[in-house]
Automatic annotation (TrEMBL):
Keywords attached to this entry: Cell projection, Cilium, Cilium biogenesis/degradation, Cytoplasm, Flagellum
Protein's organism: Astrephomene gubernaculifera
Pfam families: Dynein_attach_N (PF15867), RPAP3_C (PF13877)
Domain Dynein attachment factor N-terminal: start-end pairs: 22-84
Protein name: Coiled-coil domain-containing protein 103
């Protein structure tokens, strides 16, 4: 995916192929431990920014990919309704609100169109972490489908900013929750898959050119973090081969 981004001028200074040299077992372990430490530290920072305790944040991360279960429609309480709630025919009279209500219900289904995505992205997910969990719910296949025609410059910019801000922290929380089972590396792989899905959108090269220079620092930090993950993954793989 980095190679596609280079072609589209998203990461002009990144190498087209990354092949880390073989390193010793000690350096391999150090590379992975350093990456994991950074991921966990970032996770704790994300928890603070969400104003929740760390355990709550880890649970939010671990369930981000699950589709919410929508309960059947029911009355708000089981108490009898007051008499003025009924009309002359005995039916319940709906209360008319003087002000329109904005729905903030979390979507229980992945978007079917780009319009669905845009609406849910902006209305129901106000914070970067909310948006990141929404991306986890959607997954690469959904993004590839809804953005088959094109992805807008504004949404692409927002997605890149959300990925850069959140992926390492969410990966670190999952890593610690799972006891160091490589969850942070899997999070990096997920981000790469999302980027690959977005790069398949129609007229993607034109969209990238319209991003402007203000997005470049965000992309540099994002790709730098993913490169660190690639180094850690390569070191881990090499360590396993040597055993």
């Amino acid at each position: 995916v980095l190679e596609n981004m280079i072609t589209c001028e998203m990461a002009q200074e990144q190498p087209t192929q990354y092949r880390p040299a073989k390193i010793s077992k000690e350096l391999a372990n150090a590379a992975y431990d350093d990456f994991k430490r950074k991921a966990i530290d970032e996770a704790k920072k994300r928890a603070v920014s969400q104003r929740v305790d760390y355990d709550t944040f880890k649970n939010m991360v671990l369930t981000a990919h699950l589709k919410p279960i929508t309960a059947p429609s029911r009355r708000e309480n089981d108490r009898p309704s007051p008499c003025w709630s009924f009309g002359a025919d005995g039916r319940v009279v709906k209360q008319q609100s003087s002000q329109p209500q904005l729905s903030l219900v979390t979507p229980s289904e992945v978007p079917k169109t780009s319009g669905d995505f845009y609406r849910d992205w902006r209305r129901n997910h106000p914070t970067p972490d909310d948006k990141y969990r929404y991306l986890k719910l959607c997954g690469p296949d959904t993004l590839r489908a809804v953005f088959r025609v094109e992805v807008s410059t504004e949404v692409l910019r927002e997605v890149l900013c959300v990925l850069e801000a959140c992926w390492l922290g969410h990966g670190g929380a999952a890593e610690e929750a799972e006891g160091g089972a490589g969850a942070a590396l899997r999070e990096a792989a997920f981000v790469v898959q999302l980027l690959e899905a977005l790069s398949a959108a129609g007229r993607f090269p034109l969209t990238v050119k319209l991003l402007g220079s203000t997005c470049k620092p965000v992309m540099e930090r994002l790709f730098s973090g993913l490169e660190s993950a690639a180094t850690a993954a390569a070191a881990t793989s090499q360590d396993e081969e040597q055993q």
